[in-house]
Automatic annotation (TrEMBL):
Official protein name in the record: CbbQ/NirQ/NorQ/GpvN family protein
Family membership noted in the UniProt record: Belongs to the CbbQ/NirQ/NorQ/GpvN family.
Organism of this sequence: Aequorivita vitellina
Molecular function terms, GO-annotated: ATP binding; ATP hydrolysis activity
Source organism superkingdom: Bacteria
Pfam families found in the cross-reference section: AAA_5 (PF07728), CbbQ_C (PF08406)
Keywords for this protein: ATP-binding, Nucleotide-binding
The keyword Ribosomal protein appears for this protein: no
Residues in CbbQ/NirQ/NorQ C-terminal domain copies: 189-272
Keyword Nucleotide-binding: yes
Domain (ATPase dynein-related AAA) ranges: 42-176
Length: 274
């Protein structure tokens, strides 16, 4: 297998037959998605890491009984990765559709996770799919493919990461409807932790209280704060028998910071609250 094939397989994930994923709606995102899907308007999910964006797309794909193709974008992700490329197979050179082309032809939902991380030519490649044309131009083949009526484009973006240098251009943003994801309220977040892990309600509530306490400590200047994902990880460790304090330290505190003083202060705080 060539390197390109390996990379393609590593960054692209196709989920067809899935069990229903658990998703707790936080605002009116389900309703917005339903209408955007009906009208085939691309959606941009904005928000910090671990706030349920990926889970939401998976859930919605399931609601519509649609295949979901996920591409985790990074700084090397190019339009070629998405559209496709020629590869050498034995004595032959064959064309292999990339995830975008596949989704456009088959009518799948394409989820570009962290789109701002990708190279600028990715945005150029999706332009004609995000307006009335709804078509994809494959320059290497010199053809234009009309999008299947069920094709839908979803992208995510973490406004916190970019700090000015990896923004999405306003002209691109305006091609999407945008939905904000934030941390759920304490009641909903407790329900998510319990559902995801089977941890008891009281212990889950304590984890959520810890998260909210740390989220409010803005003076610590953490680049990212406690996400629901970290709480789920802590709950899983507790459930599998790791002591509570150690679980919280390794799943919540340590991933947030390398600063020894902040680590100690947060550990002390969590030890009191768990
Ligand atoms: P993101 O894509 O925003 O980084 P994810 O969708 O991967 O975040 O969410 C991380 C984890 O948090 C999920 O695997 C799930 O366990 C949990 N989670 C967060 N929000 C929700 C929600 N609203 N409903 C159910 N699970 C959630």
């Amino acid at each position: 297998m060539s390197t390109t094939e390996t990379i393609k397989m590593a960054s692209e994930e196709v989920s067809e037959k899935r069990t229903i994923p658990f998703y707790k709606p936080i605002h009116r995102e389900v309703e917005v998605f339903e209408h955007a899907y009906k009208n085939k308007i691309p959606i941009l999910l904005k928000g910090p890491t671990g706030t349920g964006k990926t889970r939401f797309v998976d859930f919605m794909a399931h609601q519509f009984n649609q295949s979901l193709i996920t591409v985790s974008c990074h700084e090397e992700t190019s339009s070629t990765d998405l559209i496709g490329r020629y590869i050498i197979k034995g004595a032959e050179t064959i064309w292999v559709d990339g995830p975008l082309t596949k989704a456009v032809k088959e009518g799948a939902i394409l989820y570009l996770d962290e789109i701002a991380e990708a190279r600028p030519d990715v945005v150029v490649a999706i332009h004609s799919l995000t307006d009335h044309r709804k078509e994809l131009y494959i320059d290497k083949l010199g053809i234009t493919v009309k999008a299947h009526p069920d094709f839908m484009l979803v992208a995510s973006f973490n406004p916190g990461y970019q700090k000015g240098f990896k923004e999405i251009k306003p002209s691109t943003r305006q091609r999407f409807v945008a939905v904000s994801f934030q941390y759920p309220n304490a009641k909903d977040e407790t329900e998510i932790v319990v559902n995801e892990t089977g941890l008891d309600q009281d212990a889950a509530k304590k984890l959520v209280n810890i998260a909210n306490k740390i989220r409010n400590l803005t003076e610590l200047g953490l680049t990212e704060t406690v996400s629901t994902r970290l709480l789920v990880d802590a709950a899983l460790l507790i459930n599998s028998g790791l002591p509570k304090r150690l679980s919280v330290k390794v799943a919540i505190v340590e991933p947030l910071t390398d600063d020894l003083e902040i680590t100690q202060a947060l550990t002390d705080l969590c030890d009191l609250m768990i």
